[in-house]
Amino acid sequence: MLGSLAAACTSSAPNGSAANLGSVRPVEITTPPKGSFTASECVHKGPGTDYEVGPGKKYAAIGDVPMEQLKAGDTVRIHYRPEPYREKLMIGGVGKADAPIRVCGVRGPNGEMPVIDGENATTRKQLIFPYDGHQVRGLVMVGWKRSDPWQTGPEHIVIEGLELRHASPPYKFTDKSGAEAAYTQPAAGIFVQRGKFITIRGNVVHDNGNGLFVGTAGGEELTEDVLIEGNYIYNNGSSENYYHHNVYNEGNRITYQFNHFGPPKSSPQGILGANIKERSAGVVIRYNWIEDGAHLIDLVDSQEARQPNVTSPGFHESWVYGNVLVRGPTASGSMVHYGGDSGMLETYRKGTLHFFHNTVVIENSAYKEWEGSAIFELSTNDEALESRNNVYMSDTPYPNRPVMLLGKRDGVVSGVASFEGDWIREGIDTFATGKVKQVATANGVDGCTRGADPGFSSLEKRDFHLGEACPFVGKGAALTTPNDYGVRMQYVQHGKGEPRPAEASPTPGAFARK
After folding, report:
1. How confident is the model at residue 392 (pLDDT cuts 50, 70, 90)?
2. Which residues partner with 204 through β-bridges?
3. How many CA atoms lie within 13 A of 33 on its CB side?
4. Alpha-carbon torsion (485, 492, 259, 103), positive or negative
5. CA gap 101, 88 in Å, rounded
6. Which of 2, 16, 274, 479 could bridge to 298 as Cys pair (CB 3.0-4.6 Å)?
7. CA 236, CA 374: separation in Å to the nearest integer?
8. Helix H or strand E segment including 310
9. Are residues 344 and 484 in the same domain?
10. How distant, in Å, are the alpha carbons of 186, 340, 377, 387, 438 from that of 204?
């Protein structure tokens, strides 16, 4: 079991904790998770109503369930069947911390997940959306019900154990009025218009315009306290433009953990969308496997929620730790972008990216000649990077296939970076070279450990655990991060986690040697 998201996000943190620093206090892991989160048990607990959906159940279709009436403690249990459910969902009720509204999938005899497919999906006519035009924006939707008072928004909602696909053009659906409608290009597998304490756990989300899209505005519409845990999210985005992603969020206090992020949708020009694009304040990304994307992680300025977020202390500190980041054999943009992308420099993050105990691998041996890859891109010198105890590995850092720690944007290398306790592959440059203007600084690189072989169990098989020949065991730097950000877990392929083995002295990377 994992600690309560509600309890973990309170402001009554002890002195020295992340909450007092103005950042999100991430979900507490009270007991190590066992097995895959995608195998979470879908059983009804608590005082509410148990709505069972599927063959031989009281409700044959999801649309038979009065979703517009869900209240605290209710569970909608969707049983596996060979044919997908071609139906749309809208969840707008108010749950409680100890009695959430839960929509979950009951697996089949061989572990099959129930599939909800947006292609030719139908819509229950009684569903209440924020406005009727909202229907084109997603498959599973969370948001304010127009019949509720404006101040009443959905809270304590759990969505888990479902496979969600095909909320994107060219697919169409039947809306609540019975008319045929087409999804918008940015439609999402899970679209959260507004909510608090939203948990998205153990789902498989693929082939949508956006896999997840959380948050659309500030004020009372600001989405807060979101846990994204143990999902497999891949092949979302667009093959035509850069604006759609595996995940695209703009809220406040977002925690990612134990997810497997496969590559976003590709195009003849490569992958155009990001894997994780975040405009939120209070972002924690830990213990995930993140593979490819125009950016693997894109932490930029807010838009619709600019007013509350730019003044939030949590907007100016982002925490990325314990992850595996893999840039595959096709070159693309920088792996981690921090700052902004609007051109409105005054709204950029202007803070610190805390990046520690990650394993970063660039598979550049198959790059075309003179193609390169940057690990970080900092938008301006108002953005800072603190890199501690990471592993930066390139399988073949040829001079004509360059890899660099700090890359360029519009011909300028920016940012204030510091490195300590990292292991850096020989041949990885500090700065982008060539026709660039360098205004960035990078302190501590010369003091980091260098080498040609990190001693992974198998680089070819992408097993980045540490073998007996690992040269940097116990050679990391002592961390002084707040206790809330202690590195206590490590990722297990895939969608799992385990306690990180205790060490007398820290080892760089996402894994400690057992």
Report:
1. very high
2. 163, 232
3. 28
4. negative
5. 17
6. 274
7. 23
8. helix 306-310
9. yes
10. 18, 29, 30, 31, 42
Statement to judge: residues 315 and 184 lie in one domain = no
With beta carbons less than 8 A apart as the criterion, state whether 436 and 412 touch: yes
The span from the first CA to the last CA of the chain, in angstroms, equals 24
**196 touches 222 (CB < 8 A):** no
Q: With a cut of 90, say whether residue 53 has pLDDT above it.
A: yes
* Strand 463-466 with 456-458, pairing: antiparallel
**pLDDT band with cut points at 50, 70 and 90 for residue 476:** very high
For range 207-232, the mean pLDDT: 92
Domain assignment present for 29: no
Question: Are residues 441 and 336 located together in one domain of the fold?
Answer: yes
Residue 296 structural domain:
290-514
Structure tokens of 401? 């296939």
| 345: DSSP letter | G
**Strand, coil or helix: 38:** helix
Element (H, E) at 5: helix 5-8
SS3 478: coil
Please tell me the predicted confidence (pLDDT) of residue 29: 56
Q: Using one digit for the tens of pLDDT, what is the confidence trace for 74-90?
A: 999 999 999 999 999 99
Instruction: Quote the pLDDT of residue 400.
Output: 83
User: DSSP class of residue 502?
Assistant: P
Verify that 114 and 199 share a domain, yes or no: yes
CB neighbourhood size of 325 (10 A): 28
Cβ proximity of 205 and 233 under 8 Å: yes
> Looking at the structure, do residues 225 and 96 belong to the same domain, yes or no?
yes
How much is the pLDDT for 15? 26
Specify the amino acid at residue 488.
Answer: R
Q: Confirm if 299 and 278 have CB atoms less than 8 A apart.
A: yes
Strand partners, 89: 140
Residue 26: inside a domain, yes or no?
no
Asked if residue 332 and residue 208 are part of one domain, the reply reads: no
Mean pLDDT of the chain: 90
Whether residue 315 sits in one domain with residue 213: no
Confidence at residue 40, expressed as pLDDT on a 0 to 100 scale: 64
Considering the domain boundaries, does residue 310 fall inside one? yes
State whether 319 and 191 are in the same domain.
Answer: no
The predicted pLDDT at position 352 comes to: 97
The pair of three-digit structure tokens given for residue 497, joined into one six-digit string = 């986690």
Q: How far apart are CA 13 and CA 18, in angstroms?
A: 8
pTM, full prediction: 0.92
167 alpha carbon, distance to own chain's centre: 19
| 254 in a structural domain | no
The count of domains in the chain is 2
**DSSP code, position 133:** G
Q: Residue 20: phi, psi to the nearest 5?
A: -70, -15
Query: What distance lies between CA 62 and its chain's CA centroid?
Result: 27
Selection from 127, 125, 123 nearest residue 145 by Cα: 127
